Amino acid sequence: MSGGASISRDVQRLLKGATAQLAGRARRGPDSGEGRRVPRRHSYDEADPRAKPWARIQDGSVAAGLAHREAMIATAEQLYVEQWRKFPLSEVRQARAERAAAAAELDDLASRSPAEIPVGRPATLRQLIAKLDQELDDADRRLHRIDVTVLKALLSFLDFSTGKLFPAIERIAEKAGCHRNSVISALRRLKANGFIEWVRRTTMTGNEGEFAPQREQTSNAYYFDNRRRMAKATWLRFTQILTAKLSRLGRIPPGQSSAPVADPAAPPAPGSMAAALASLGAALSRAST
Question: What are the boundaries of the region Disordered (predicted)?
């Protein structure tokens, strides 16, 4: 029985290879170096430096790392409340209805003769649709309550000393107590709001020498690029919360706890308060990259 199964697998492999040759897909690129193939765009071998985008969190200590994590979670919680106040569900539903009505009217006008179309009405409708589309797009990026839960779960895997963070979706889902699809949706919204970034990683499948996938996707490598990715107001809130927490730990002078980050394009005079704030901003930036 086992011999027959082995022959069957060999025949199937030969058939797949012959089909691929006829389709011009038999030549596979190398798995490393020039011309390497990857499963998806921006996917890198887990040993590739680009698949290791991590940086130490603050000074790498547990106390500072916990302060960083708590500040990020607090910022997400505040943003969640703020966004739902700005885009309540009732207004979002009304905007969707208005958008559908405007699109239907525009379609109706398109079916009429030019003499029947009110002057300027199509342009007005297009402007209204564009405005509503932007509002709805902003509303769709709102954080959900589950997003904060997923962020807490994700950050629980963070290594403060190295910044390493690469849990599988299933592990995040288990920690958050939700379905993996909920985790995927939450991660996308967290990324859209600048809380996290990630790169896809790949690993060898063990199918070397066979006409079969040579690589497979493994867990993402998550990292932080908050200063560049967060909205300005969100970044400022995060730095204020983080600075206050670090101040209580004695990591920075208490008198600088709520000042915004200085503009690096105009370096302040050495020894000034602005210089101290710029130094703090640089430290926060390094921790978020």
Answer: 18-51, 253-272
